[in-house]
């Protein structure tokens, strides 16, 4: 006896997204019910809908960059009130008692976080459905507050693209003057540029297409490097302290590692699958190759407050939900500046 909710779903692998009705649970004591206003479109949605990671569950309602307003609260909710502007990101639950959860890194929950969509519910009663929908019921402990100074549509991508780039830049200590390369100028990449700049780094966009040069500069990047000509890897060898790799497709990691100086670090946030690495590329310069996944709830709130203070939001293209398949196609062609956001008023 839940709440009937309009949504868009992929009914099977690589299916077009079509209208579907789901049920949200009635808010329990700790839950807030959120009217979803906007939902960003992450490349992860494409990987999942197309079954690229082998773990997709259909029918699937994607979407994990959710912004809306609280429309109802449970009896024990003390962090939010009706009308508050709030966000839900990539996960909606975790075990709450493992060492990762206790240290506020719920995304690394040792017992497995429950992701916002495509996750089995802990009580065994089905799977989670994401933000391509009109409303969502979420435990208040997995909801964050959107600073009132930020436009809600352009804030939506902060819930995934924002925190996924902010977290490793902070965790690995990017600081003023460091030479940072952001690899791939898409949804994550353009947020990486904004945060690395805000942290005072010297930022270079490293793109596989020359066509992004002007856009990179307009975003505030200090420099631009196209890898269309392989010689650019040799010409720029040893130039960077830190690389943030946001690429969604196969690429040769060892080429990029060559751009780092002695003791440099490359952090992968892009998830194309297996990426082989030449041992000599790492060993020869004592390099570190790391990975990073989104961020915890506390850090997500910290990132949103940082965005509120610095006036940082995503550069977006607002679309009706009926344009979602075309948006996926355009993302595959890197034809987006720089994040599609679904206007949920287009869904009835
Ligand atoms: P996106 O907007 O589609 O951007 C991906 C970028 O990758 C493109 O704009 C393009 O940049 C670059 N690229 C594409 N094909 C390439 C190729 N063949 N060689 C080199 N570069 C290529 O995707 P997104 O939403 O930012 O997501 C990026 C990746 O991060 C996805 O794999 C996604 O699943 C993953 N992700 C991870 C996390 C996490 O927690 N770690 C969170 C969210 C998303 P240029 O045109 O500038 O080269
Ligand atoms: Zn995402």
What's the overall geometry? globular
Main sheet record: 7 strands, mixed
CATH homologous group name of the largest domain: Medium-chain alcohol dehydrogenases, catalytic domain
Helical content stands at 10-25%
CATH topology of the largest domain, by name, is Quinone Oxidoreductase, Chain A, domain 1
The CATH architecture of the largest domain is: Alpha-Beta Complex
The total beta strand count reads 17
What ligand molecules are bound, each kind once? NADP nicotinamide-adenine-dinucleotide phosphate, zinc ion
Radius of gyration based on Cα positions: 20 Å
In short:
The chain has 348 residues and is of the alpha/beta class. The protein has helices at residues 43-49, 99-102, 152-155, 161-171, 187-198, 213-218, 231-235, 253-257, 279-283, 297-310, 324-332, and strands at residues 3-10, 17-24, 31-40, 66-73, 85-88, 91-93, 114-115, 135-139, 144-145, 179-183, 202-207, 223-226, 240-245, 260-268, 288-291, 316-319, 339-343. Strand 1 (3-10) and strand 2 (17-24) form a beta hairpin.
Protein architecture, described:
The protein is an alpha/beta fold. The chain folds into two domains: 3-160 and 315-346, Alpha-Beta Complex (Quinone Oxidoreductase, Chain A, domain 1); 162-291, NAD(P)-binding Rossmann-like Domain (Rossmann fold, 3-Layer(aba) Sandwich), CATH 3.40.50. It is 24% helix and 27% strand. The chain has helices at residues 43-49, 99-102, 152-155, 161-171, 187-198, 213-218, 231-235, 253-257, 279-283, 297-310, 324-332, and strands spanning 3-10, 17-24, 31-40, 66-73, 85-88, 91-93, 114-115, 135-139, 144-145, 179-183, 202-207, 223-226, 240-245, 260-268, 288-291, 316-319, 339-343. Strands 3, 4, 5, 8, 9, 16 and 17 form a seven-stranded mixed β-sheet that branches. A six-stranded parallel β-sheet has the order 12-11-10-13-14-15. It has a two-stranded antiparallel ribbon with strand order 1-2. It is globular, with a radius of gyration of 20 Å. The model has no long low-confidence stretch (mean pLDDT 97). The structure holds NADP nicotinamide-adenine-dinucleotide phosphate and zinc ion. NADP nicotinamide-adenine-dinucleotide phosphate (NAP) binds at residues 42-44, 47, 160-161, 164, 184-189, 207-209, 212, 246-249, 251, 269-272, 292-294, 331, 334.
């Amino acid at each position: 006896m839940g709440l009937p909710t309009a949504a868009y779903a992929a009914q099977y692998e690589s299916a077009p997204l079509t209208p579907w009705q789901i049920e949200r649970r009635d808010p329990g004591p700790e839950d807030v019910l959120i009217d979803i206003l906007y939902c960003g479109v992450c490349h992860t949605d494409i990987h999942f809908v197309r079954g690229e990671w082998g773990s997709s569950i259909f029918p699937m309602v994607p979407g994990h960059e959710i912004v809306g307003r609280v429309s109802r609260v449970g009896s024990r909710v003390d962090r939010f009130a009706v009308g508050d502007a709030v966000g839900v990101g990539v996960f909606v639950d975790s075990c709450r008692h493992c060492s990762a959860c206790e240290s506020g890194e719920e995304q690394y929950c040792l017992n497995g976080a429950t992701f916002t969509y495509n996750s089995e519910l802990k009580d065994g009663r089905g799977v989670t459905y994401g933000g391509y929908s009109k409303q969502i019921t979420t435990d208040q402990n997995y909801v964050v507050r959107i600073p009132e100074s930020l436009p809600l549509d352009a804030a939506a991508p902060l819930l995934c693209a924002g925190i996924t780039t902010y977290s490793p830049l902070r965790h690995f200590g990017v600081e003023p003057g460091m030479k940072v390369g952001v690899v791939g100028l898409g949804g994550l990449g353009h947020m990486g540029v904004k945060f690395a700049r805000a942290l005072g780094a010297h930022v270079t966009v490293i793109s596989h297409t020359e066509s992004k040069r002007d856009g990179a500069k307009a975003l505030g990047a200090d420099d631009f490097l196209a890898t269309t000509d392989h010689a650019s890897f040799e010409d720029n060898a040893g130039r960077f302290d830190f690389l943030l790799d946001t690429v969604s497709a196969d690429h040769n990691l060892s080429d990029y590692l060559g751009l780092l100086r002695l003791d440099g670090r490359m952090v992968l946030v892009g998830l194309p699958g297996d990426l082989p690495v030449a041992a000599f590329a790492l060993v020869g310069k004592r390099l570190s190759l790391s990975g990073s996944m989104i961020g915890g709830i506390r850090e997500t709130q910290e990132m949103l407050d940082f965005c509120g203070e610095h006036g940082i939001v995503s550069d977006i293209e607002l679309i009706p939900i009926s344009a979602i398949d075309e948006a996926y196609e355009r993302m595959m062609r890197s034809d987006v500046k720089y994040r599609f956001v679904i206007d949920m008023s287009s869904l009835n």
